[in-house]
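yo, Galactose-1-phosphate uridylyltransferase is done. seq:
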Amino acid sequence: MTGTARVRRTSTRLADGRELIYFDDSEPYVSGGATRRLDDPRPLPHRFADVVGPDGTTRPATAPEMRYDVLTGEWVPMASHRMNRTFLPPADANPLAPARPGAAYSDGEIPDTDYDVVVFENRFPSLVAVPGVPDQVTHLDGEELWPTRPASGRCEVICFSPDPSGSLAGVGTRRMRTVIEAWADRTAALGQLPGVEQVFCFENRGKEIGVTLHHPHGQIYAYPYLAPRTATMLRQARAHREHTGGNLLRDVLEAELRAGRRVVAESEHWAAYVPAAARWPVEIHLAPRRDVPDLPALTDAERADLARLYLRVLQAGDRFFTHPEGSRHAGEPITLPYIAAWHQAPVREGREDLRLHLQLFSVLRAPGKLKYLAGSESGMGAWISDTTPERIADRWREVVSDDVEEPGA
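structure:
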């Protein structure tokens, strides 16, 4: 069990050796009266089995590589094997759906015919620690300027619902609470893996974002380095502490609450606001009122409060835009494509300087119009906003509800 949320965690191994974990909040599973299916009958080779090359020679499994960009100070994983990952499968071949009752077992990832929330290692990971491959720095072509090392780490998939047509916004508060428990569990566990420096929970939603599987799901990455945005925030936070003695992210939240102009919604433990320098045409941040480094550090009350406020925000997002007059669906809401990114303090470095918060943003700037990253943004990293944070906040306040729309209500 995990806290008072009553969530049962059950771990198993898939046919190729990857870990899968059920997080159950419904009976008879949560009490232990029954257990989800744990065996995986697929005839899959072990993920780290020797590989037969085009020339017929058998070679040991190799780790994906990452290379250091000396111009930016960033590590860049080279995950060429992901070119063969699943892309927009038909409904009867959805690898994230539960197994069909009575049907011959297909190549789906979840063995049981139902689940509440489930997490498993990605079959096509960009970061993976291969046994026997040391995490050592070498140099490409023997040049000191080009350090390389294995792209070790771990990539997991989290399925929010067994319903392929559903969404995280529609799971209801109990199931959202279970999702939060799963995020916290995986953040704590992955942070204990050797070499992991940062854990990132996120969701990509919508074809406009580039999603290739539309089943409601997210991902969890365990990086063997600090991601560029985290490194930048850490640098800024340390400079702020040195100059003012304060915590940058706490000071930002308090300043937004004092100003009030961009605050969208508040609860006992959380606040939702549009940041003063928002970049995206739709953007909102959720931050805890208390200094919290990561999801595992949240109290039970903070997790319960987050479940409700997060659902309110997600449901408001699906009312942010409506189809224009004269169109076939005039006036109807548009499902918002978005990225939801949980910024957490790193595993070791900077835990006293960085603070947990969620950043949710969309590339949709108007019905049928996307925010493209053109020359200034893509070439120089110099952002140009198409609107103002105040206008974004005004629209959020128009569409956010005081309560959660529960499923079946």
